[in-house]
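Form P-L/3: holo structure prediction, ligand coenzyme A.
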Amino acid sequence: MTYAEIRSRWQADPEGWWMEQAQAVDWMQPPSRALFDDRAPLYEWFADGQLNACWNAVDRHVEAGHGNRIAIIHDSPVTGIVTRLTFAELQDRVARLAGALRDRSVTKGDRVVIYMPMVPEALEAMLACARLGAIHSVVFGGFAAPELAARIDDAQPKAILTASCGIEPGRLVQYKPLLDGALALARHKPDFCVILQRDAGHAELTAGRDIDWQTFCVDAAPADCVPVAGNHPAYILYTSGTTGQPKGVVRHTAGHVVALQWTMRNIYGVAPGEVFWAASDVGWVVGHSYICYGPLLNGNTTVVFEGKPVGTPDAGTFWRVIQDHKVAAFFTAPTALRAIKREDPQGLLAQDYDLSSLRALYLAGERADPDTVNWAQNTLKVPVIDHWWQTETGWAIAANPLGIELLPVKVGSPSVPMPGYDVQVLDEEGRPVPPGTLGAIAIRLPLPPGTLPTLWNADDRFRKSYLSRFPGYYETGDAGWLDEDGYVHVMARTDDVINVAGHRLSTGAMEEVIADHPDVGECAVIGVADTLKGQVPVGFVCLNKGCSRPHEEITRECVEMVRNRIGPVAAFRLVVVLDRLPKTRSGKILRATMTRIADGEQFRPPATIDDPAILDEVAAALRELGYPLRATG
Ligand code: COA
Ligand code: AMP
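OUTPUT (holo model):
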C-alpha cells in the first residue's frame, strides 16, 4: 500500500484504522473502541483496554522464542565499555528491579523519578516502572538541582532512581550532590533513593534514605507485569514552556504502545531483530520513544550510546558505532552532524568504516538546514529523512514514511503529515491559509494515539497552553507553511521556546533566574542563531539605579546563576548590559524585534515602540558579540 492509500484509509475511518493498528500489540483485555471523546476537547485512546507496556517491550519477545536476541547494546566510548543484554537477560533484570520496588511498596500509579546517565539501567528503571504500572518521570542529567527539585515537587515520587555519576567528555558529572541539592530544595521527599554505583566514581550513600542498586535487586523476587488501563499514564516528561515552571507532558500507555509500534515499521522501516540507534538521551522524548520503548516494542536491538558526536574520541565515532553494531536505522539531531562536519568537512572519516548496514538517517529536534542534510547525504549515501515532532506528540507529526515508501525528499521540509495528524496552517483569526502562506501550524483535534492527553495535574494549563488559541485545534507553537504537495515546512517557534543543540529550553525560565540577581533591574533573553547549536541564548540586563559594580562581574554571575539553576545544558554564556530595553509604550519588551536584529533580518519597529533609538543600542551590543553572524562571516 502507498502512503496516499494508507492516509486515505485513515481519513475515511480514523477509529477503525487505529483499531487495526492496535492488533499489533498484546492486550490483556482488548479495548472496546478506539476514541474516548466524552471529555472533549480532552481525548483518550483505547481507554478501556488492559495491557502492560513492559510485557509488550520485553516479555512477549521472550515468550515468542526470541530471548537470545540482543535487546540493548551499551556503548560507552569514554570508558571503553561495550555490553550486550539479551531480551531474556533484560526480562530478568527488569523483573527483579520491579520486584524490589514492589517490596518497598511502589505500586500502580505511584511516581518514580529517574535521574540517570546513558546506561542500560536507565532503560531497566523505566521498564520496571512500566511493569508495575508505576509512572516514571525521567529527568535529563544536564539539568541542575533546582530543575530536578521542581520536577520532584510536581511529580511527588515515592522513589528516585539515580547513579553515582555520568560521563561527559573531560569530566564526571556527580549525580549525588545534585540529588542532595534537589532534595534540600524540594518540599516533597521521596521514601527512598536507589543509587547505581559506577566504577568511574562511587557516591557516598545517605544512611536511611539511599540504597545501593545491586543490594536493592539482589534478593528481590521477580515481579510479573501488572495489567493497566489503556489510559493509565505510562510516564510524565517535563518540557520547557514559556515560564520557569516546566510542563508535565503525560503519556497514556495504550496509545503510546500502539503508535510507537506502528512507527517502527512504517516510518523507520525496521524489522524485528535489526539494530536501531537513536543518539539522544533518555532524558528527552527521543530517548523515551526511540532509545527505550519503540525499538524494544518492535523487537529491535537498541543502542545506548554514552558519548558525543565529537571528542569521544573523534568525529568518526558515530560511524564506528554504526559499523560495530550493524545499525540499520540511525536517528540524531542536526546539531550533532554540524559538530562532525565542522571537524571533518569532507566527511572523510566515514570512509574508514563499513556503513553497509545503514539504510537511512533520521533527523529531528530542530530545523534540518539544507547544508547539513546535503552533507549527510553525500557522506553516508543513504536517504536523509527529516521528521518533525515534539515532546508533546511523542512521535512524528510529519515524516517521510520510508517503511511504507520513500516519497520524494524536499530538503528543508520534514515531508508529509503522518496518519492521525490533520495538519493545518492558520492565520491570526484561526482560519486555514492557502498553500505557501506562512502561519501558525495547528493540528485538528483529536490528536492521534501516543500524543499527550493532558499535562500532569494541570488540565486547565493544558487547555490554556494548547487548545485555547484556536478552538478545535492543538496549537503546536511552531510557525510554517504547507506547500501544494501537502509537504510541511516548519520555520520557527511562535513562543519563547528556543532550541539549543537540539535541547528545548525556555528563555522565560532564564529571565526568571537572571531577574533574581540583586543588581539586575530588568532583563530579556532571546535566542540567536549559532552555527553549531542552531540557537544559543543571549541575555540583556539593565542594572538597578546606583549600581557601580563592574559589568563583567555581574554578567559572570548571571552566567553562573543560569548554570546552577537551570543547568549547563542551557549553554548560557552571552550577557550584555544595556541602559534600557526596547519596549512598546505599554511596556512590552520587544524580544522579537531584538531577535530579528541579531539574525540580521529586515524589520520595521512596531508603531507602538517607546523609543526607537534603543534599537541602535541593542544592535551595537549584538555587533560586539559578533551578531548578526554573517556580518562577521
Ligand atoms: N549530563 C550532564 N551534563 C551534560 C549532559 C548530561 N547528560 N549533557 C550535556 N551536558 C553539559 C555538557 O557537559 C556541557 O557542559 P560544559 O558547559 O561544562 O561544557 C553543557 O551541558 C552543554 O552541553 P552540549 O549541549 O552537549 O554542548 P557541547 O558543546 O558539549 O556539545 C554537541 C555540542 C553538538 C556535540 C552536543 O550538543 C550534541 O551532541 N548534541 C546532540 C544533541 C541531541 O542529540 N539532542 C537530542 C535531540 S534529538
Ligand atoms: P522537543 O519537544 O524538545 O522535541 O522540541 C520540539 C520542537 O523542536 C518543535 O516544536 C520544533 O520547534 C522543533 N523541531 C523538532 N523537530 C523539528 C524539525 N524536524 N524541523 C523543524 N523544527 C523541529
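COMMENT: The first helix runs from residue 3 to 12.
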